[in-house]
Design goal:
This protein has 20 helices and 17 strands. The strands form 5 sheets. It has a 7-stranded mixed β-sheet, sandwiched between helices. A 4-stranded antiparallel β-sheet has the order 13-14-17-16. It has a two-stranded parallel sheet with strand order 1-15. Helix 18 packs parallel to helix 20. The chain is globular. The two termini are 31 Å apart. It binds pyridoxal-5'-phosphate (PLP).
């Protein structure tokens, strides 16, 4: 009791810490207010430790604790991580990583003023859509194009403009929930149009649509069931058939494709993902899709279609509420230019991951394993599967080689291991399958290989040394 009391009396005051050389420096780097707060916390922690029997820490130790508190507090809340899950497009992890060109475009455009809505030739007001509409027309064959801040906004804008107070016919097999609360029936209600469901969950044919048409019908809507599969006894109606029916009656066909796949996915050993250019060629009047799913760009909504329809959308008051910002536009233009130059597979990260060669993935997993084994870690590699994720190509798998850490060879339970990998300053997100922790090189950027090895050593070997 006596000793504890003496030790407590040895603790410096906040003011004494502020007057040290390091204290002054911390004040200058992080502000006086934040430094005072950190000193208070450090002193309070020391008081608790002393009461529990510890000796009074040195000034150096207190200053060190305060510095660490300040550094942790000032770390960005939104920050990069390493995705070792093997799920290429994951909404929780920010969907598509951007290409080098897209990042550079954001940097250039974000740093100063731009011609966002300014015609340089005439010196007059211009349209922000002009920066990408030409490219989108060229890549999809559309007459016109428009962009919004995401595809949910694109769907809301389109339905609000084209079907307010009128009926929209949709198959029961397409009344889907995309995730994150985006349910097609809810969006339709929010858009002020009336939902007319036709067919059954597994089968809808053109006669079902035809029988549902009334004076009140505005459009036929097709929604790509992008995150689930219905297999077995199924039938759905092609865009071509919908367009033929709709156009005979002076109605419109809208196709919500979701992913925005501009490359033929069949070439990569995957099922065929419907493409905007096909949908337009088949007669759809409006097609919308995301910028950050298989397109591999920034979060955006893209609407392509007939000029008369796109013009109506552009004039709707909601357009202002859902408009895209300049940094997104810069990244989107740069991403689309990769497609224009035929460089999507080599330059867009999502497509690089999809097209990664099996031998290359095996080589990287083996490299991780070899590095870890030289530090006495017991690991193995095994064949596995990566997935596309993010509401694209459900059920489709790409063969890969995984690094596996078996539960019985690790110094802690796997969920604790996974947690420690996640709370590093550069987090590593993995997946657990039964009694193994798995890391897939497909979604880890090549330049992150050393960091993966480093992180595993820190967490596994580091815990043994302590
Ligand atoms: C993902 C998806 C959306 C929503 O797109 P966001 O860009 O996430 O807003 C809408 N419809 C379909 C079919 C989708 O797959």
């Amino acid at each position: 009791m006596m000793i504890e009391h003496e030790q407590l009396r040895l603790l410096p005051s906040v003011d004494e810490l502020l007057h040290t050389v390091i204290g002054q420096q911390l004040g200058a780097d992080f502000s006086r207010a934040l430094t005072v707060e950190a000193f208070r916390t450090a002193i309070a922690q020391a008081r608790i430790a002393i009461r529990a029997g510890a000796a009074c820490p040195t000034y150096e130790a207190l200053l060190h604790t305060a510095r660490e508190l300040l550094q942790r507090q000032q770390r960005p809340h939104l920050r990069p991580l390493i995705n070792a899950t093997g799920v290429i497009i994951n909404t929780n992890l920010g969907r598509a990583p951007l290409s080098v060109d897209a990042l550079e475009a954001v940097r250039q455009v974000g740093a100063g003023y731009t011609n966002l809505e300014y015609e340089l030739e005439e010196g007059e007001r211009g349209s922000r859509h002009s920066h990408v509409s030409g490219l989108l027309r060229k890549l999809t064959g559309a007459e016109a194009a428009l962009v919004t801040n995401n595809n949910a906004a694109a769907v809301l804008l389109s339905l609000s403009t084209l079907a307010l107070g009128r009926e929209v016919v949709i198959s029961r097999g397409q009344l889907v929930e995309i995730g994150g609360g985006f349910r097609v029936p809810d969006v339709m209600r929010q858009s002020g149009c009336q939902l007319v469901e036709v067919g059954t969950t597994n089968r809808t044919n053109i006669r079902d649509y035809e029988a549902a048409l009334t004076e009140q019908t505005a459009l036929l809507l097709s929604v790509h069931p992008s995150n689930f599969l219905i297999t077995g006894f199924t039938e759905s109606t092609s865009i071509g058939a919908l367009a033929e029916l709709a156009h005979k009656r002076n109605l419109l066909v809208m196709d919500d494709l979701g992913s925005g796949c501009l490359l033929e996915s069949g070439r990569y050993g995957l099922a065929h993902e419907p493409m905007p250019q096909e949908s337009l060629a088949a007669g759809a009047d409006v097609v919308c899709f995301s910028g950050d799913k298989l397109l591999g760009g920034p979060q955006a909504g893209i609407i392509v279609g007939r000029s008369a329809v796109i013009e109506r959308l552009a004039k709707h008051p909601l357009m202002r509420a859902v408009r895209i910002d300049k940094m997104t536009l810069a990244a989107l233009e740069a991403t689309l230019r990769h497609y224009e130059r035929g460089q999507a597979e080599t330059h867009i990260p999502v497509w690089r991951m999809i097209s990664a060669r099996a031998e290359e993935l095996a080589r990287r997993a083996e490299y991780w394993a070899t590095q870890l084994k030289t530090h006495e870690m017991v690991v193995r590699t095994l064949g596995g599967e990566s997935t596309i994720g993010g509401g694209s190509l459900p059920g489709e798998k790409l063969p890969t080689t995984l690094l596996a850490l078996d539960a019985d060879k690790m110094p802690m339970p796997l969920d604790e291991l996974a947690r420690r990998l996640r709370v590093r300053s550069l987090p590593i997100v993995t997946r657990i399958s039964r009694d193994t922790l798995l890391l897939d090189p497909r979604t880890v950027l090549k330049e992150q290989d050393e960091e993966v090895v480093q992180g595993l050593l820190e967490v596994v070997v580091g815990s043994l040394e302590k």
